[in-house]
Each structure stands twice: as structure tokens, then as C-alpha cells.
Specification:
Helix content: 25-40%
CATH superfamily of the largest domain: Metal-dependent hydrolases
Strand order of the largest sheet: 8-14-15-16-17-18-19-20
Oligomer: single chain
Structural class: alpha/beta
Radius of gyration: 26 Å
CATH architecture of the largest domain: Alpha-Beta Barrel
Shape: globular
Distance between the termini: 58 Å
Strand content: 15-25%
Largest sheet: 8 strands, parallel
Number of helices: 18
């Protein structure tokens, strides 16, 4: 057959096929709603590709590539945004945060970022004067560094008010420092027994309580006397936190502790669901239900009902949190060997080991992700052991269990993360020599164990997966501050601190991945978000600078110009 005739026949056949297809299949409109172009797009796909432009339609990404290619998706109604060389990244995700508690704390009497005891006491006094009709004063956010070698004492707060309870919580959420009126409200006296999993600070000579209650069971003695928060208060707290997180480029989180009530519907989950159903929830939320010590495996049925009732859309109830130990500063983190400055103390677990073993095994069998607060090397090993036990009993599955904070790890346990497919969650902003690590911890741990703190690079090198979270409101939720710390192991805020265990520093790419695609993996949404790829939601951030083009010590100086959730600008502006 003549080539011209053949060509004509093929064209006719193709046109006929197109017409027939068009009669049976709707025409697909690939016109973008928004094209972001002229930027430095780091996609975090498997090839770690760079691009120039991204096209978005109906909240999802329909094109990633060069600017010329993006023009094919341009229509009369397409909005064009010139990034002018700015960096475009997948939006950040935080795998361990307390959005409701943090929002409530900032609405009451925040003590965060105060550097001296005098500032803290002055602020508490101002709050007491501001609210003369309140039955009690609650403040949160002080740090142990303000006390130096002294200890918090009720007398300091008695000087402010002796009639009303003053209840202050440290930034870590592990200790209450209260006045005499608060102790009286809770009935705490010299003869009070110490709750299992908690501690009451007492005078060494007289036995009188000094005004400190450490860890959940002891702190509960106070909090149980106070009225519960309302759904309205928690909803307002969430909206406050959501706005704050958007300003930092965060669009997905794991709420690290949803307290489970004994009988009533869960207010926190109701608050999330109300925002979701009203269209006001602009975060993807993985909710970790809090395991209640002493309630045993009977609570699993309630957790399964909560998962079924509330998991929908941007809210998923798929994790259970075990708050397993305390913190090193108060000697409540569980260590494998005794504290160097208290040879008869190793810390403790917040609940019996048998309860953790039974609970984790049964929850794993029911398909829950397990999330364990693990500060001490003893707790990290315990967590790995119970994960391994659940795996052996129930079989291998895509569980994505994780430890979080993971501060002190014995070297023998580092390779176990990769072998057991356990995610090592870190709060990287803490991985520098602040006053805790440079002053308080060395006499507690000794030189050898100080070299085991936050081995982020060690986990990666030995085949493990990491994910980052802030633990806000314990400390800032700003990922850029945390990323700079992870890369430099030094203070990101101008303090002259020597690098903390510098061999544990990681690359910028690794740190960004821990806040994007690996965080999405931790939250079981890596098929939807975490990278800039066709078919995924357009959850994106625009940064003022290409982080790869600036000195690592200037990463935290970069600014979030805009945050997009499914293509909607939820913070800043794109033009």
C-alpha cells in the first residue's frame, strides 16, 4: 500500500475511534485551577526530583515539571502564581503534638519562653490580679532551668496567693508546681501515699509536701479536683492551634494524646469532628488515643468504638499512645542502669510492664498503631521488646509502631529499629546543648551515656526510619528551627552552643524528609500527601529561600510565605 494512503487510513481510524470514544466517555477537562510557576520545587518523590511548576485542579496535583509543560494546563480561568524563585515544598507534618492542651495553655496564663524565675513569678502574679474572680489560677510553660540548683517550692507561690489554688505545669507536662491552697484542695499531706507511676515532692527532714507533683498519676490528684473543659473550649483551642500551625507550614499532625473518658463521649474527638463536619478543619489529623494506666485491656473496646465512630475525612483515629516514662531531669525516665547522681534510682514506668505487654499485643492484633513515649534507654528497650513480642504473636504487618522523643538509646538497641520496622520519632529541636543537656543531664547520666543522646544519624545509618515532631506546647512547633538543629546539632537561635554529639547530625534532605514524606508515612497518608506528585493533594508550602542555597545556620531564618491545603491558601499569600 502507498505510504500516503496508509497514513490517511490510520488518521481516519484514529479519528473514528476518538469520536466513538467521545460518545461513550465524558471529556476530561485538564484545565488547572492554579499553576504555581517560576519556583524551586523540591518534590520529595522517590528520585528526589526538582521541578519548576506545579498545576492544581480540585485540590489535587495534576502536573509537576517544567514551566513549558505547565502551559498545557492553562485556561481562561486558571490562576497563575509567579513564585519568583522561591522554594516550593510539600507541607510539613508533625508526628507528635498536643494541639488542644497547647491551645488551652495559651488562652490561660502562658509561661513559655520566660528565662528567669522572677519573670515566671511576675507573670503568675499578673494573671492572679487579672482574674480576681476566678476560683483558681492555672499557668503552664515554666522550665527547670529557671531554678538552677534550687527546687520549685509552694512558698514561692504562697507569696502570690494563699487563698486560691495556684496550679502551674512545667513546659514538659511532667510536673505540677502548686501552692499550699492547691495541695489542700487535693488533700495532699505529709501522710499521702505516692500513686503508682507518680511522685510527690516532700521535704527530706519533715516529710511535708513541698508543692511538686510529678507524672500523671500524681498530677491527677490536683486536676481531678478541677472542672473539665467543655467542647466549646477545646474547639476554640483547636482553631487557635490550627492557625499557628498554618503559619509554620504544617497541614498534618498526629495528636499525641487524646485522653479517653471512662464513659462519656470523647470531647476532644467531638471537637475535631465538629470542625471537620463544618468544613473548618484544615489539618489532616491522626489521633492517638491515650492508654489509661490501671484500666487494662477492657479499654480497648472503647478505643475500637472511637475509631469506628470518628474516623472519616481528615480525622483518623488509628493510634494508641502509651505514656510510658517521665523525663531525665526529675529522675522519672526509666534507665537501664542507675542515675549517676542517685545510684539507688533508675526511674520507673508509668504503669506495670505486664499491662503494657498485654495492651500492646492486643491493640496490635486489632490493627492499631502503637505510639510509646520513651525518654530513657530502659523505656526505649522496653518499647522495642513489646513491639517485637506483638510481631511474634500476631505476625508481621504494616504496623508502623513508633517510639517518640527517643532521647537516650543504648547502642545495642539502635539496629533494632530497622530490623523491627519501628519508627524512631524524635523532637529534633531538643538535640542541642541547652541548659538541660549542658547543665542538668551530665551529672545525672555521666559522659558515656551523654554520648547516646538523640542518635538520629545512627538510626538512619543502621537501616531505621525516623520521623519528626515538636511536642508543642512543650517547645516551639516551628519545623525550620528543628530542621536547623538536626543538621547542625547546635542552637538555631544564636546561642553559642557546641555541637551535641556532632556525628549524629543529618543532612538537610534527611531532615526535610522526616517532616514531609516520612512523617506522612508515619501518619499512614503517604499515598495522599508528603510529596509533590501527580494525584496527591496539593498540601504545599512556599518558603522565602531555597534552603539548599543558604548556609545551614540560616535555615531557621527562612520564612513561610504561604501554606496551601488542597490548593487553598490557609496562610499568607501566593502573589
Amino acid at each position: 500500500m502507498d505510504l500516503t494512503v496508509l497514513k490517511s487510513a490510520l488518521i481516519s481510524t484514529c479519528l473514528l475511534a476518538a469520536v466513538c470514544s467521545a460518545q461513550n466517555t465524558p471529556i476530561i477537562d485538564n484545565t488547572a485551577d492554579l499553576i504555581l510557576q517560576g519556583g524551586k520545587v523540591y518534590t520529595f518523590d522517590k528520585q528526589r526530583s526538582w521541578a519548576e511548576a506545579v498545576a492544581i485542579k480540585d485540590g489535587k496535583i495534576i502536573y509537576v515539571g517544567n514551566q513549558a509543560g505547565a502551559n498545557a494546563y492553562r485556561g481562561d480561568k486558571t490562576k497563575l502564581a509567579d513564585l519568583k524563585g522561591k522554594m516550593l515544598l510539600p507541607a510539613f507534618q508533625d508526628t507528635h503534638i498536643h494541639p488542644i492542651a497547647g491551645g488551652l495553655a495559651y488562652d490561660e496564663c502562658p509561661l513559655f519562653d520566660l528565662k528567669t524565675l522572677e519573670q515566671v513569678l511576675s507573670t503568675i502574679k499578673d494573671c492572679a490580679n487579672k482574674y480576681p474572680d476566678k476560683d483558681y489560677i492555672i499557668a503552664k510553660g515554666w522550665t527547670w532551668g529557671i531554678f538552677g540548683i534550687t527546687q520549685p517550692n509552694k512558698k514561692l507561690l504562697d507569696n502570690i496567693d494563699t487563698q486560691r489554688p495556684i496550679i502551674t505545669e512545667d513546659a514538659d507536662g511532667h510536673t505540677l508546681w502548686v501552692n499550699s491552697a492547691a495541695l489542700a484542695l487535693a488533700g495532699v499531706t505529709a501522710t499521702s501515699s505516692v500513686p503508682e507511676g507518680g511522685a510527690i515532692g516532700k521535704d527530706a527532714k519533715t516529710g511535708e509536701p513541698i508543692g511538686t507533683l510529678m507524672e500523671g498519676p500524681a498530677m491527677g490528684l490536683i486536676y481531678e479536683q478541677l472542672p473539665a473543659t467543655t467542647i466549646e473550649q477545646e474547639t476554640a483551642a483547636l482553631l487557635f492551634t490550627q492557625s499557628y500551625l498554618h503559619s509554620l507550614g504544617i497541614t498534618a499532625i498526629q495528636d499525641a494524646f487524646i485522653e479517653m473518658p471512662d464513659s462519656n463521649p470523647n470531647k476532644s474527638l467531638q471537637a475535631y469532628a465538629a470542625l471537620r463536619d463544618s468544613g473548618k478543619l484544615k489539618l489532616r489529623v491522626s489521633a492517638a488515643l491515650g492508654w489509661k494506666p490501671g484500666k487494662g485491656v477492657q479499654q480497648i473496646e472503647t478505643m475500637m468504638k472511637a475509631r469506628e465512630q470518628f474516623s472519616n475525612g481528615r480525622l483518623r483515629v488509628n493510634s494508641v499512645k502509651f505514656w510510658a516514662d517521665g523525663i531525665i531531669e526529675t529522675h522519672t525516665a526509666l534507665l537501664l542502669e542507675p542515675y549517676s547522681d542517685q545510684p539507688d534510682v533508675r526511674g520507673f514506668l508509668m504503669m506495670p510492664l505486664k499491662e503494657i505487654e498485654e495492651g500492646t499485643q492486643q491493640l496490635d492484633a486489632k490493627g492499631f498503631q502503637l505510639h510509646i513515649h520513651a525518654i530513657g534507654d530502659g523505656t526505649v528497650r522496653m518499647a522495642l521488646n513489646v513491639f517485637e513480642n506483638a510481631r511474634n504473636v500476631n505476625g508481621v504487618r504494616d504496623a508502623r509502631h513508633l517510639t517518640h522523643h527517643t532521647q537516650l538509646i543504648h547502642p545495642d538497641d539502635i539496629p533494632r529499629f530497622g530490623k523491627l520496622d519501628v519508627i524512631a520519632g524524635f523532637s529534633p529541636y531538643w538535640a542541642y546543648a541547652d541548659e538541660y543537656i549542658s547543665v542538668i543531664n551530665p551529672p545525672q547520666l555521666g559522659a558515656e551515656r551523654m554520648s547516646w543522646i538523640y542518635p538520629i544519624n545512627g538510626i538512619i545509618k543502621q537501616g531505621g526510619r525516623i520521623a519528626f515532631g515538636s511536642d508543642w506546647s512543650v517547645s516551639t512547633a516551628d519545623p525550620l528551627l528543628a530542621i536547623e538543629t538536626a543538621v547542625t546539632r547546635s542552637s538555631p537561635e544564636g546561642e553559642a552552643t557546641p555541637p551535641l554529639n556532632p556525628t549524629e547530625a543529618i543532612t538537610l534532605e534527611q531532615a526535610l524528609a522526616a517532616y514531609t514524606i516520612d512523617a506522612a508515612y508515619t501518619n499512614f497518608i503517604e499515598d495522599e500527601t508528603g510529596s509533590i506528585e501527580v494525584g496527591k493533594y496539593a498540601d504545599l508550602i512556599i518558603l522565602s529561600d531555597n534552603l539548599f542555597d543558604i548556609p545551614v545556620t540560616e535555615i531557621s531564618a527562612a520564612k513561610v510565605s504561604a501554606t496551601l491545603m488542597e490548593g487553598e491558601v490557609v496562610y499568607g499569600a501566593i502573589n
